[in-house]
Structures are given as C-alpha cells and as structure tokens.
C-alpha cells in the first residue's frame, strides 16, 4: 500500500511538472527564477570587484568594458552590487515569505477548524491588518523595531500574514465537512492530527501558488523600505537602497538607478509568472 501511494505521488509530481513546462508563463517564470538563483549563487565568481570597496577616482563612470553597468558616485561597480543584491533579494523573499507563510497557515487552520469565537477573533484581527496599506503598515512596524534589513523582513512578513490566513481558512471551511474528515473525528483522532494530516494536505496547492506570488511582492515591498531609508542601510548592496542613492544622479548618471530597477522588475515578473504557471499546473480542473 505504501509503495502504491509513493508511486501515485511521484506520478502526480511528474504531471504537475509537465503542466508547468507546458505553459508559456510557467516556462518563462521558471527560467527567470532559476536565472536569479544562479546569479545569487555564482555572483562572487562572476565579478572581480568588491561591492562595497570605494574608488573615488572611478566615480560616475558610464557602462564600459571595464565596468559593464558603470559605477556609482563612490566608484563602486554597479554590476558587482547588482549580483550581491540578488542574494539580498532572495534572502528577503525566503525569510519574509516564510514568516507570513508559517504564521498565516497556522492561524488559518485554527480559524477555519475552530469556527467559533476563536476563529472570529483571528479574522477580525486580520481585517484590522488588511485595513492598512501594505507599505504603510510595514513602515509603522519598522518605525517601532528600528531601520534595518532584518526588521524590514520581519515587517513584510507580518504584512502578508492576513493573505495566508484568509486563504487557508477558506480551504479549511471547504474541506472540514468532507466524509474522510468526519470519519477521522469519529475514530477519535486529535484535532491537531485532523488539521495537519487530513485538512492541510488539501491546502498545499493554493499555499504554493500564494507563496510564489508573495515572494515577488516581498522583494518589491522591502525594496520600497530600502528606498525610504528604512531597510538595508548603506553601504549594503540592496536594490532599493541603490535606487535611493541613484535618484540624485538620475540625469547625470542614469545607470545607477536603471539597473537596480530592472533587477527588481525582472525578478518580480519571474516569480509572478511562475505563480501563474503553478496555479494552472496545480488546478485539478485543468
């Protein structure tokens, strides 16, 4: 029986991958995502310049054979800072998205399974968080915790908790009354076992799709905090902070902020396209 189940899960994974690769959005999103990950992992080996080391004699150089993306006002190589900034962007996505995913899924499970005063209390708290614009709420949290990349990731993670909570709660309410869940309750299974073994498994598909979409949004929001001076602090090679410093030279040296902006744009498009592809691949009706 266990071998049959394992074979069934393996077949299902192959089917999902086939559907993902069969979608134009899925292929393009997967390609961009893998490219971003490759740049993050191989960044140090692709450039010989230190992303923080200053060279005032080389300041504000236009893109050339020596500096493909040019240099900033301190003579730092833009390409080097872009490559190292890719690592920061992925770190932001993983940590911020992970915070919101773990907390949001737990709250959604509890709110959907115990649909009484506890579920109502949780959802009203989520409504309060949703009443604030995302960036404004993140700024309020960073103002309390203090500026910095770590606190910015925590703030973005808190901001996206309501999305996961509402998503998981809806899935729990849709599956809570199904026959196999009722049978598990009658057999005396604990609430935790029912929620994790019987209900949560039906929520994997929407959670995976939401995680891929939130990943890109977390990068944008953290870059916004960095642009406002509340995220990564100089001289850290973070795309939002690079945009902030480059805006003063947008007419004199537009490449300083052009390439970080393109990095954010391409990364977010890649994760969003991957999310669209996963949504189609994991849809049982497709």
Question: Could you characterize the architecture of this molecule?
Answer:
The structure is a single chain. The chain is built from 12 helices and no strands. 73% of the residues lie in helices and 0% in strands. The protein has a single domain, classed as Orthogonal Bundle (MetI-like fold), CATH 1.10.3720.10. It has helices at 2-22, 24-46, 78-113, 117-130, 134-145, 149-159, 161-175, 179-186, 191-199, 204-227, 239-246, 255-282. It is an all-alpha fold. The chain starts with a helix and ends with a helix. Helix 3 runs antiparallel to helix 4, helix 3 packs parallel to helix 7 (161-175) and helix 4 (117-130) runs antiparallel to helix 7 (161-175).
In short:
The protein has 286 residues and is mostly helical. The chain has helices at 2-22, 24-46, 78-113, 117-130, 134-145, 149-159, 161-175, 179-186, 191-199, 204-227, 239-246, 255-282.
Fold topology:
Elements: H1 2-22, H2 24-46, H3 78-113, H4 117-130, H5 134-145, H6 149-159, H7 161-175, H8 179-186, H9 191-199, H10 204-227, H11 239-246, H12 255-282
Helix pairs in contact: 1-2, 1-12, 2-3, 2-12, 3-4, 3-6, 3-7, 3-10, 3-12, 4-7, 5-6, 6-10, 8-9, 10-11, 10-12, 11-12
Named at the architecture level, the CATH assignment is: Orthogonal Bundle
Give the end-to-end Cα distance, rounded to a whole number of Å: 28 Å
Helix content: over 70%
Helix and strand composition category: mainly alpha
CATH topology value: MetI-like fold
- Mean of pLDDT: 85
Characterize the quaternary organization of these chains. single chain
- Count of domains: 1
